[in-house]
Each structure stands twice: as C-alpha cells, then as structure tokens.
Amino acid sequence: MAEDFHKPTQFSGSKFESFKGGEDPAQISRIAHETAHAILSRVRSDPDPATVERLVAYTDEHGIDAVAELWSRATPRSLPGALWRIYLIRLLIRQDPQGTSYLYQRGTEVAVTIDPVVAGASAPTGPDEIIALADEILRGLFTGDFAVALDRAAAFCRVIATGCTSVADDLDATEPARSGELTRRALRFSTTAQEFTSCAKLWRQHSLE
Prior knowledge:
By secondary structure, the chain is an all-alpha fold. The protein is built from twelve helices and no strands. It has one domain.
C-alpha cells in the first residue's frame, strides 16, 4: 500500500535510516507500539474535540514524515501499523480527491457486496464526500468504536479495489500500461483491506498490540 505514496510524499526507505534509533528494530518496534497506545488511550479516555481534530489534521500541518518516523515500520497487523495505514489512506484521498472519488464511485456502481454501505460515504461520491469520509474514519479511531472504524477503512479499500479493477478492464485494450497500474493498485488496496479486517478482529479480541 505504501508504494502509492513514495513520489508525492517525497520520502523513501533510505531516509528512515537517518532517524535516531533507526538501526535498532527492537527499539523502533517498542517506540511505535508505546506511542500508538499512549496517543490512543489518552484521546479515547478524554476525547476533547479540539484534540481529536488536531490529530485528524496532524499530517496536514506536519507532513506524513512525522507519522512515518513513528509507525511506518510496524507490522500491518498491529496498532501502530493500523494507524499508519489509516493516515496513508487519508493522505491518498486528500492528494487526489478527484481521482480517488472517481475510482470509489465506479466501485460502488459495480460492487456486489455491502462494502459501499459499510464504508459510509455519501452518494453520489465526489471529491468533497471522499475527503469527508477519510476524516470520519480517522476520527472514528479516536472517538468511536475502533473496530468499526477499521471495518469502514477495509470496506473503503475494497470498493476502491473494485473500482480500479473495473477501470483497468475498460483500458486493457487501449491503455495497457495504465490498466496494469490500476490492477496493481487494486491488489495493494485488497491487501490493505485484509490487514484492516485482521486488525479489527484482533481489537475485538483485545489482542491488537
């Protein structure tokens, strides 16, 4: 999933090596888990609206690098891994709300599951609606049912994957390179959806670490 963000966010794996403690995987893992649990516990125990909104919009002011430094190396099926991917999803949407909403809308039109309902975007889904959905999902991690927010994120990813596959099929004969790119993106979103679903299950079992 993170491959979608290398160019627009202008950071790479090599940059992470310069972070303090970057050569000690155990320390990275410990810091990632401790910060994720500390932030989530503090906000969920006292969900001050101003604090929640600052966290939702944190990367708008500070950039994705600040979050990446903390959580990007965490395993996908972990609390920091889930938070990292939610922030990435939000970044993707805000960087290209037009393109993302187009793929999402296409996905809702061809989906044969209840994923569009679970994701919960307003229909029809344009740029404003898709941005609002991203903020709602992230906000839900801090103030609502954490597992439900992850389920919504997973459903969103599956709808996008369906839209990517549908558009890829349309372009297969005329724009094979673009079709291939969309097919690969669909696979990444499908994988991320599985990771979110696993995290939601672990959260409900009180075992998401």
